[in-house]
Amino acid sequence: FQPGAIVRVSVQNFVTYEKAEFFPGPHLNMVIGPNGTGKSSLVCAICLGLGYSPKHLGRAGSVKEFVKHGKDIATIEIELQKKPRDRCNYVIKVQIRREQNSQKWWLNG
């Protein structure tokens, strides 16, 4: 993997997913599947987890709309490949709270 490449995406209570984990490969990755299987949800999780505004995604106007129906909190975790001199990979964690329409961020914590 190149430094900065996504090596893992984990979501919980995010749009269509109750709990899921994805491990992209080091080269070209494609997300394919029938309609309604969560392809766009995965792409939205990556975008939101890397700091994009929900308005850029064209799917929802606010982050609270990405929390799975009937749940209060959604979590996105993205692991990025470390640089050769670093000890461990970088892990970005985002917690989305429906009621507060808010996000809380962690880096390696």
Please give a quick description of this structure.
10% of the residues lie in helices and 34% in strands. The protein has 109 residues and is mainly β.
Helix content: 10-25%
Task: Please tally the β strands and state the result.
Answer: 5
Strand and helix order: EEHEEE
Q: What general form does the structure show?
A: globular
CATH architectural category = 3-Layer(aba) Sandwich
Overall mean confidence score, pLDDT:
95
Major sheet summary line: 5 strands, antiparallel
Continuous helix count: 1
Specify Rg, calculated over alpha carbons.
Answer: 14 Å
Corresponding CATH superfamily: P-loop containing nucleotide triphosphate hydrolases
Structural class: mainly beta
The fraction of residues assigned to DSSP E strands is 25-35%
**Per CATH, what is the topology?**
Rossmann fold
Distance between the termini: 22 Å
Question: What can you tell me about this protein's structure?
Answer:
- There is one protein chain.
- The chain is mainly beta and about 110 residues long.
- It has one domain: 3-Layer(aba) Sandwich (Rossmann fold).
- Helices cover about 10% and strands about 35% of the residues.
- A five-stranded antiparallel β-sheet has the order 2-1-3-4-5, with helices on one face.
- The protein is globular, with a radius of gyration of 14 Å.
- The mean pLDDT is about 95.
- Pfam families: AAA_23 (PF13476).
- GO terms for molecular function: ATP hydrolysis activity; single-stranded DNA binding.
- Belongs to the SMC family. SMC5 subfamily.
- This is Structural maintenance of chromosomes protein 5.
